[in-house]
Design brief:
Structural class: alpha+beta
Distance between the termini: 50 Å
Largest sheet: 5 strands, antiparallel
Strand content: 5-15%
Number of strands: 15
Low-confidence stretches: 1-19
Order of helices and strands: EEHHHHHHEEHHEEEHHHEHEEHEEHHEEE
Number of helices: 15
Shape: rod-shaped
Radius of gyration: 44 Å
Mean pLDDT: 79
Helix content: 40-55%
């Protein structure tokens, strides 16, 4: 028989599904077996020690000692079967109660019948039957014990074994058996209900624990639990990702940045519960501290959040405001600009113009086109719809994108080199927004990245469980210009609008992605787009 603690036993064939956990049932059976062994030894020891007295076996000493030794031997055999699980639980429990009724009835007869008081031991067996096997089985055993006592009294009366008949005592003893059986039945039913309720609550608590653990691990905010000595007790995946860690450190001070310093500052001054920190990986986080008292120990909870999440919310509001502004620009600037451009074009067609005047009309046309491009870029921001993110497999998507880009812009595909892992790398982003970002970055690489000096590398990889796309070219941007790369209208070109990188960064933040720039070890320009992992999407809060 299985020893799984969650197994349920249905031992009694006379009862409807009354069950108790297997481990607890076998333990109760062992306790009852111990009681039998002690009782058998007591019968034997007291009989031999007080052989001359009239305590035990007063009517038939031979029957008493044979019954006592049989009781002991059967108990030892049952012990072997129980400890090695040689028989089923139900069979063993029923065997113990039935042999109790038989042998104790014989011992009672050998000691003087019902008047000896030995019949009270049968009450213990009836109660044990109700607890070990089931409440309704206790009623069956009570009836069986009552019949055994009555049969013993009838036999004694027929054989004239004793001086007086004790039918009244036998009847009272039988009534007590049924009373005990009834109480055992009620107790067993109540125990069953308590066990069922406890099992249900255990399952509910287990589900809640699993749910809480899942929610905590998949929150977009990082959660770190520490004690007063700054020992980290727990941290979720987002905390490790935001802190750029691959494994959970033992101490808060092992996390790069000033998080431990801010925590100790808060301990000294609880009013300063908010801190804005810069991590070595150039990520900016917002941290909050709060006490977390428990019944046994006092802990502290640190919540860290990526400020980029707040930027996304601000971005929605900013785009809405910009939309209203650009609508006004379209009417107030574009119409006069169109008139100026048309007038310059008509003027340039005048055959009487001198060469110097014709050069002036070309300047008018060139700068009219440039201003119109600026307006188009700004209008592109205002017309942008909300992000509709989809699961994208980066390898086939980038391979197909490069083919379309080369065809659309008449670019030799040999100017690019793809470095892509297997198909398993997936990102969560709006495909249209990703295409706009890639268009801006690839056009900039062709225009400023010196493709004649070497191929432009387009690669994807995983960094801190997040899929990334990098565009690496042969250009180099000075440190002074790097600080202004993603500002609107910043450009080092006389023909550029300065909005391409700004629009790309805004689109990235709209999709909870991050666009950054750095110089590689080979002093090559690298734009990195860090995307959401489609296989580990997080819960927005």
């Amino acid at each position: 028989m299985s020893t799984n603690s969650h197994e349920t036993i249905f031992p009694c064939p006379f009862s409807k599904a009354y069950g108790i956990p297997a481990q607890q049932a076998w333990l109760l059976l062992k306790v009852f077996l111990g009681y039998r062994l002690i009782l058998a030894w007591l019968f034997i020891a007291l009989f031999y020690n007080y052989a001359d007295s009239s305590l035990f076996g007063t009517y038939d000493s031979r029957l008493f000692i044979y019954s006592s030794w049989s009781y002991l031997v059967l108990s030892i055999i049952s012990g072997i079967c129980i400890f090695w699980r040689l028989t089923a639980y139900a069979t063993q429990a029923q065997w113990l109660i039935l042999t109790d009724i038989l042998i104790l009835t014989l011992i009672m007869h050998a000691s003087g019948g019902v008047n000896s008081g030995m019949g009270a031991l049968l009450a213990v067996s009836i109660a044990a039957g109700g607890l070990l096997i089931g409440g309704r089985c206790a009623m069956f055993f009570a009836a069986l014990a009552s019949l055994a006592v009555l049969a013993e009294q009838v036999f004694a009366d027929y054989m004239h074994s004793f001086n007086s008949n004790s039918y009244a005592n036998a009847g009272m003893l039988g009534a007590s058996f049924f009373t005990i059986a009834l109480l055992s039945y009620i107790l067993a039913k109540r125990s069953e209900q308590i066990l069922q309720l406890a099992d249900q609550q255990k399952k509910t608590i287990t589900k809640l624990e699993d749910l809480n653990k899942y929610i905590i691990q998949h929150l977009q905010s990082g959660i770190i639990i520490v004690n007063k000595q700054s020992d980290i007790q727990m941290a979720n995946e987002s905390a490790l990702r935001l802190a750029n860690l691959s494994a959970l450190p033992a101490k808060l001070g092992d996390i790069p940045g000033d998080l431990a310093k801010a925590f100790h500052t808060w301990l000294l001054d609880p009013e300063q519960s908010l801190a804005r920190l810069q991590l070595p990986n150039q990520a900016e986080i917002h941290s909050r501290f709060m006490p977390l008292p428990t019944a046994h120990e006092f802990f502290y909870m640190i919540i860290i959040e990526d400020i980029a999440l707040y930027h996304q919310q601000v971005q929605q509001s900013k785009l809405a405001s910009l939309g209203r502004l650009t609508a006004s620009i379209a009417h107030e600037i574009r119409n006069p600009l169109g008139a100026i451009s048309h007038a310059g074009q008509l003027l340039s067609e005048n055959p009487l113009l001198s060469g110097q005047d014709r050069r002036l009309t070309e300047i008018i046309q060139t700068h009219s086109v440039r201003v119109n491009h600026i307006i188009e870029d700004i209008l592109q921001l205002s017309r942008r719809s909300d992000s509709r993110r989809e699961k994208i497999r980066l390898k086939p998507w980038l391979d197909n994108y490069l083919k379309n880009f080369s065809h659309e812009y008449a670019v030799d595909s040999d100017a690019f080199m793809l470095s892509l892992p297997g198909d398993a790398l997936c990102a969560l982003i709006d495909p249209g927004h990703l295409r706009q970002i890639m268009d801006n970055l690839c056009r900039n690489a062709l225009k400023y990245g010196k493709p004649e000096a070497g191929k432009i590398i387009l690669r994807s990889f995983v960094n801190q469980q997040a899929p990334c796309i990098e565009i690496i070219d042969n250009g180099a941007i000075s440190r002074e210009h790097q600080n202004h790369l993603f500002e609107p209208f910043f450009t080092t070109s006389s023909s550029g609008t300065g909005l391409g990188l700004y629009i790309s960064k805004e689109l990235a933040e709209l999709n909870q992605a991050k666009l950054s720039y750095y110089l590689s070890n080979e002093k090559r320009s690298c734009f990195r787009l860090r995307l959401l992992n489609a296989e580990q999407t997080l819960i927005d809060i």
